[in-house]
Amino acid sequence: MSQRTSALPGGLLALAIGAFGIGLTEFVIMGLLPQVAADFAVSEPVAGWLISGYALSVAVGGVALTAAVTRLRRKHVLLALMVLFVIGNLLSAVAGTYAVMLAGRIVAALCHGAFFGIGAVVAAGLVAPARRAGAIAMMFAGLTTANVLGVPFGTFLGQHFGWRSTFWAITGIGVLALAGLALLVPGRGPATDVPPAGGLRRELRAFTHPQVWFSLLVTVLGFGGMFGAFTYIAYTLTEVSGFATATVPWLLVLFGVGLFVGNLAGGRAADAALSRTLVTVLAVLTMVLVGFALTAGNPALTVGSLLLMGAFGFATVPPLQMRIMKYAHEAPTLASGANIAAFNLGNALGAWIGGLTISAGLGFTAPIWAGAALTLAGLGVLLVAERRARRAVPRRPLATADLVDAAA
């Protein structure tokens, strides 16, 4: 048996390190937001644009950059994206003003969606066909690890050595990922060769299906609700629940455990019953957010709510991604990338609405109430979409092999 089928190639580790750094960049800012706001003398809602601005940039880059580089060699694209990531985080680390900090966040975010979309294709091509799903899972394990371990550690680092130290560390991770991609990902072969001509036209056909657009809207609203509640979580934990600032990183570890478990459980449940899983998870997530808003003043109940919010919030991710791929028969790659953009558009929407509620003087539980309303709206859209899907003429189910062949 060849090395290609007997052992996972080193290129997957490089992709996982890149995913770890990107996940850390996106989420670590939440635990550091009070420090950053104080350092630049800006209000909490203004500081929140460091989150929502990042998310909007991901939404743009995930679609626009993926579409723009469809005719380029994939390894070269991944290297360029990681250079962009390093530059953006370096800008954040040395930023002397809020505007420079925001610019660094936007630059770093441009690589996010395209890296995950193209990286998944490369990961699948690095191994034998029977191991492609495991290879993609290994790359995305970097993102999960960033949430479970990287974010709490980054928050701890920032609180003890200044928030800039966290971004210096992320810059170093980006350099390590860049070196790994250059050395370990092959420059030639099915994983990294130039994609076939005419691919973009084929990819765009997927967006003629109404259910693809329904799926994108459900992603924006459903995931945006959870993220809106999470954006100002550091303020909620310290100002409402009464936790000490030093406790926040450990509470984020608990949240990370919840999302890790929820992500796995959501994927398994979606394999068995996609529609029922998504409806159930969004309904329960709405109830969890309402319960969190009502009991945020109780530290013990807040711990339970944080764990459940992570679990049910990220249990939406596999079924949301599977739903859009189910209806994107013609080309799941760009549709999948568009859904990553939709996740981050939801992040921006949730953070923006949460900031508005704080600016209106409604308190630090108001973003949680707003998140519950957004998630409920996402559930409503999903129910309408499922009803229309049942009435529509059945289309050929999209098999896993079709997704792999289209991606590779």
Overview of the molecule:
Helices cover 81% and strands 0% of the residues. The chain is mainly alpha-helical. The chain has two domains: 10-195, MFS general substrate transporter like domains (Growth Hormone, Chain: A, Up-down Bundle), CATH 1.20.1250.20; 201-408, Growth Hormone, Chain: A, CATH 1.20.1250.20. The protein contains 20 helices and no strands.
List the helices and strands and how they pair.
Elements: H1 3-6, H2 10-27, H3 29-40, H4 44-47, H5 49-68, H6 74-94, H7 98-109, H8 112-125, H9 132-161, H10 163-184, H11 199-204, H12 210-231, H13 233-240, H14 248-272, H15 274-295, H16 299-314, H17 317-327, H18 332-359, H19 366-391, H20 400-407
Helix pairs in contact: 2-8, 2-9, 2-10, 3-9, 5-7, 5-8, 5-18, 6-7, 6-8, 6-10, 8-9, 8-18, 9-10, 9-14, 12-15, 12-17, 12-18, 12-19, 14-15, 14-16, 14-17, 15-16, 15-17, 15-19, 17-18, 18-19
Task: State the CATH superfamily name of the largest domain.
Answer: MFS general substrate transporter like domains
Count of alpha and pi helical runs: 20
Broad structural category: mainly alpha
Query: What integer is the average pLDDT?
Result: 82
Order of helices and strands: HHHHHHHHHHHHHHHHHHHH
Total domains: 2
Compute the number of strand runs: 0
Sheet having the most strands: none
Low-confidence stretches: 1-6, 397-408
Please report which band the strand proportion falls in: under 5%, 5-15%, 15-25%, 25-35%, 35-45% or over 45%.
Answer: under 5%
C-alpha termini separation: 22 Å
Q: Please tell me what the overall shape is.
A: globular
Indicate the CATH class of the largest domain: Mainly Alpha
Q: Helical content, roughly?
A: over 70%
Membrane topology: Multi-pass membrane protein
Subcellular location: Cell membrane
InterPro entries: MFS, MFS_dom, MFS_Efflux_Transporters, MFS_trans_sf
Protein name: MFS transporter
